[in-house]
């Protein structure tokens, strides 16, 4: 309740007293992707923009993720995109004049067999060729980075090596949301929370207006930047997205004296975790095994997280979990996002399908969508992620680097 009340108070700071009759761009979704898009539009001088969200600012997946940032993906097209996003985060605090508490502590992906290590070597080679700092390391270096890790041989899944990505880490998700929102608003963008877009009206095959807060508001562009509900929004213009919505859970421990300053990931154990500056351990696992729109956390998932993490760092076995939560994420068949225009509906743009890793890409996606609107041309960086790939047989299979949901 406290978060909602605080949001309602600040909602008065962002909103105008009355909606305009027309906006150049309407953004649906006041999370990191929608706000990043609005921010980059305003930077380009396109500030007749309104952002609408049915909940509070950052109340969806932007406030329910584990804040991890990285660029060590598998495919070259993805690596280029994630690299730009990571570079965007590295300079974002200065851009929005707010300390976003970025912590590039490094990102360590463990290998539990020689086959897994070979896969990580291929990723490292591909990453380095594209300018991403990424390399395979042995057990001695792993022990230096994580002194309390269990590297014994008589384990269920012994550790044989790891992929080390030094510039990976984490950044405060709520700070990113408010940083984007505050600067975009100062540049003229209007932000309306607790304002659900009920319908999108078309004229022929072009977007004409939206229905929100009981009013019809005209616009030239509508950007679908929602998570969990992007399929519902797309149906308003008769578009069926190839997306499945599935819950994702995480938890946080009681605070401990800091002793681990790295993001540690095991794909085999389907778990990841890191220690925050305040001492808590943020821990997550794989997506739920069934589609749902539920925000409820479950005991089996907590048991899976605990089992995996205790196997990796046994000294955490007596640590108490103080909070568990769930979010919902949109997965495409190839585990890659959908960005850009929809050929069937002029003026309707997509920034969706981010699965379990959308937070880490917001600086790049917002910049690219703003460039598309400003120039009328799709940037080369996001062309591979067009919705047309699903019927042109050119899928972007990123499941290998997205298999653990972080």
Could you give the distance between the termini? 28 Å
Q: CATH top level of the largest domain?
A: Alpha Beta
Structural class: alpha/beta
Uncertain stretches = 1-12
Looking at how many chains there are and whether they match, the oligomeric state comes to: single chain
Number of helices: 10
How does the overall form come out from the CA principal axes?
globular
Strand content: 25-35%
Overall tally of structural domains: 2
N to C succession of SSEs: HEHEEHEHEHEEHEEEEHEEEEHEEEHH
Largest β-sheet summary: 8 strands, mixed
| Full CATH superfamily name of the largest domain | FAD/NAD(P)-binding domain
Q: How many β-strand runs? A: 18
- State the CATH topology of the largest domain: FAD/NAD(P)-binding domain
Radius of gyration, taken over Cα atoms and rounded to an integer in Å: 21 Å
The percentage helix is: 25-40%
Mean pLDDT: 93
CATH hierarchy: architecture of the largest domain: 3-Layer(bba) Sandwich
């Amino acid at each position: 309740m406290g978060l909602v009340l605080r949001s309602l108070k600040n909602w008065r700071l962002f909103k105008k007293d009355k909606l305009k009759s027309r906006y150049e761009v309407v953004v649906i979704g006041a999370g990191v992707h929608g706000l990043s898009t609005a921010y980059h539009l305003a930077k380009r001088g396109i500030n007749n923009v309104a952002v609408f969200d049915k909940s509070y600012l950052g109340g969806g997946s932007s406030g329910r993720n584990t804040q991890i940032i990285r660029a060590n993906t598998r495919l070259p097209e993805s690596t280029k995109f994630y690299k730009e996003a990571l570079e965007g985060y590295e300079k974002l605090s200065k851009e929005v004049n707010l300390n976003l508490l970025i912590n590039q502590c490094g990102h360590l992906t463990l290998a539990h067999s020689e086959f897994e290590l070979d896969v990580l070597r291929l990723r490292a080679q591909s990453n380095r060729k594209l300018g991403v700092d990424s390399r395979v390391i042995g057990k001695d270096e792993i022990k230096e980075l994580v002194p309390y890790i269990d590297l014994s041989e008589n384990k269920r899944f012994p550790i044989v090596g790891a992929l080390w990505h030094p510039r990976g880490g984490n950044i405060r998700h709520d700070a990113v949301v408010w940083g984007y929102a505050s600067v975009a608003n100062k540049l003229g963008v209007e932000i309306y929370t607790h304002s659900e877009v009920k319908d999108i009206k078309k004229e022929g095959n072009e977007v004409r207006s939206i229905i929100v807060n009981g009013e019809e508001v005209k616009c030239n562009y509508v950007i679908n930047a929602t998570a969990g509900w992007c399929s519902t929004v797309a149906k308003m213009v008769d578009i069926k997205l190839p997306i499945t919505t599935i819950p994702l859970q995480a938890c946080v421990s009681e605070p401990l004296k800091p002793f681990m300053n790295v993001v540690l990931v095991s794909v085999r154990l389907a778990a990841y975790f890191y220690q925050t500056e305040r001492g808590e351990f943020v821990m997550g696992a794989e997506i739920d095994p069934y589609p749902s729109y539920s925000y409820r956390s479950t005991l089996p998932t907590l048991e899976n997280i605990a089992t995996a993490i205790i196997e990796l760092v046994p000294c955490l076995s007596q640590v108490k979990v103080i909070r568990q939560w769930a979010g919902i994420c949109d997965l495409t068949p190839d585990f890659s996002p959908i960005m850009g225009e929809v050929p069937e509906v002029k003026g309707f743009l997509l920034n969706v399908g981010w699965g379990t890793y959308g937070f880490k890409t917001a600086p790049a996606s917002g910049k690219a969508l703003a460039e598309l609107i400003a120039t009328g041309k799709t940037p080369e960086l996001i062309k591979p992620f067009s919705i047309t790939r699903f019927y042109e047989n050119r899928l972007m299979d990123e499941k290998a680097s997205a298999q653990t949901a972080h």
